[in-house]
Known about the structure:
The protein starts with a helix and ends with a strand. By secondary structure, it is an alpha/beta fold. Helix 10 (251-272) runs antiparallel to helix 11 and helix 12 packs antiparallel against helix 13. The chain has 20 helices and 20 strands. The protein has an eight-stranded mixed beta sheet with strand order 3-2-1-4-5-6-8-9, sandwiched between helices. A six-stranded mixed beta sheet has the order 12-11-13-14-10-17, with no helix packed on it. The protein has a two-stranded parallel ribbon with strand order 7-20. Helix content is 33%, strand content 12%.
Amino acid sequence: RGGGAANLISLPFSYNTMSTDTPPCPPLLRGIRSALGPTLLTQILQSKILLVGSGGIGCELLKNLALSGFRNVDVIDLDTIDVSNLNRQFLFRSQHVGMPKCVVASEAALKMVPPPLPSQEDTMGAKYTPYHGNVCDNSKFNVPYVQKFDLVLNALDNIAARRRVNRLCLAANVPLVEAGTSGYLGQVTVIDKSSNTECYECQPKPTQKVYPICTIRSTPSQPVHCIVWAKEMYKLCFGPNVGDSMLFEDEESLKAEKAAEEENEEGDEGDNGQESNGTAAAAAAATDGQESGEKSTYMDLIVGLRSLLGVDNANEGDEKKVLELGDDAKRKEVLSKAHNSLTALFVTEIEKQIGMDRYKTAEKVPVPVSLDDLAKCNTTITCEGEDHLLPPTERKDYAPTQIWSSSDCIQELASCFLDVATSTNQPLPEFDKDDDMAMRFVTAASNLRSYVFQIDPIQSLYSAKGIAGNIIPAIATTNAIVAGLQVLQCFHILKAQLSASSKSDGNGDGAVDETSNLKKTCRYTYCLRDKTRKGYYLQPTTLPDPNPNCFVCRNAIISLTLNTQEWTLDMLLSRVIKKELGFQEPTILVGGDIVYEEGEDIDPSEYAINLPKKLVNLPSGGVAHGSVIRIEDYSQDLEVDVNVSHKDVWMMKADDDSGKEKVDDREEIDKFEIGGKKPVAAATAADSSDGAKDNASQDPAAEEDDDDDIEIIVDDDTPAKDTAAVSSNGKKRKTDTEEDGNKAKKAKVDTDEVIEIE
């Protein structure tokens, strides 16, 4: 008690107290020896393990590996320790905040490793080596590096890094033990090329929930819509580039929106003789209150406020504060401009849209914020004083679960503007759910919008953080269970490797030994929220066969549909080949000739001339309907053929409930379809919810954040419950308890940002 497992290894013991019938064994490993046998224990002591990720699951894994006798472990992790990690990642303490997770975790785990046997003291010294880096860095972590290990353990929570490790292990032919958790749910599986098992990319992964711009900007109906809008407003007010916000308007964007509106109107008149109400509403909403390309009432005021706060000049190196302590005149100026901006946002613009009959068919007509509440902006203080003058987060009775009133939200927003003005004139970071000011701003702004559009429920800062970052509370117990299951699979893998080694050494009788096939010895195990009829919370199933259409482990052909006359090679490279398919260093061949190539010894300027070219204008005849593109990536031992189909007219569902279609108004780079050969999952939503990060689709080179407090939220239309396990051929998998009528429960857990603005 109090010291945990680390204190156990400090207890004095004597090897003389052991039985004289067996070789000496440290007390902490006697159970392992009794259960697994001395031969497998020796294999454990000598094996070399790679662990990717040292967060929630990773900490538990390192503890398990150390206490099970594993003495040679490499740990890769890019993340640093945050205060929010301390409640469940038990290897970390408050003094470790800001330090690399892999370094601290490796040092802590090393202290738990049982002392070596006296006879092996010189050669069996424990070695836990941390690598504070990105597993997607091919210069360090590549196929030859992975080939040095007996097996690999994943403790990650984002798809990009998991995909990278999956491909490395397949290319190196090294077994991978993959795991994930989400609340009470979790699963562990083994991926092994030589055993013909399903790889990580054989099955669909959650796709992003897409919200049209017009819904976010003009017709919100759910709290998540308001929070997405507030995050965009944060970019508009404080982002390094004001143009990055979807709420930003300039002459060019207004003209484009006007043209799109006119195109939709003409299309409907051609079909029906008159414009349908649904399309009219959608087109009107798309301009967010602008009439004939007119700018919103708040835009110039927000731009002026940015200028006053020094946001636009933050990169010029001037560390002078905009608002110095005691400068009442400047303080009043900041609050006055903030008041004017908020009035335009939540009163003037709303009244303008109501006056234009934008919401005459809406179930609830928006209600502008009262002028009395807005007046609180000018009286807000950010130091000690009467509670009613302080923003809610500075009051004595403040709690993150409190619900703020409309006036509370105004005061909190005013406080945020003052915080920016009084900070050193440096660029503000991108939105981060763990940034105090960012979350205060998003909570207050989204709640005000909810009050205006009468959307329930109003969110506390705590719940808004969950939605803004797509997080659900991580449960340390689930992490511990899953980590334990991973180590059990390690034992099975090492035993199978011993068996295979014995056969290759000629010690067997030549018969086929099924124990060396991981599909026969390992299991895909689910951690369930609700017990089975037999009372089990863990449900093992056989490892599934590979998906024959998986382009990663089965080299299947991928079908790709896009506009070959509008797409450039650069668009194809960045949006599809790297972002969607996860290639790291691709070589692209058209008609057998290389049109683009990346790699360690490749001059990037050699093929740069092809990047801006349209696909149809590429060398070797270009890419047209029916063309086949060959993509190779030797850093991942991956190659695939892409069958291209041309499509120049794209349609999408209208924003109303009519079921009609309209011309797709997304940017060209978002208009493409990857056909049946690449598994595509049904969209999942965060309607009631960053792992991580406010990045809708992480680049393959994105960091492998293993902080497991970032978990995916399932769609409200699909209840968060365990679903029957289905193999790649659509048949139910045979489970170890099938005779009892119980079916395996499958709830694969992957973490990625699931909110995307269309």
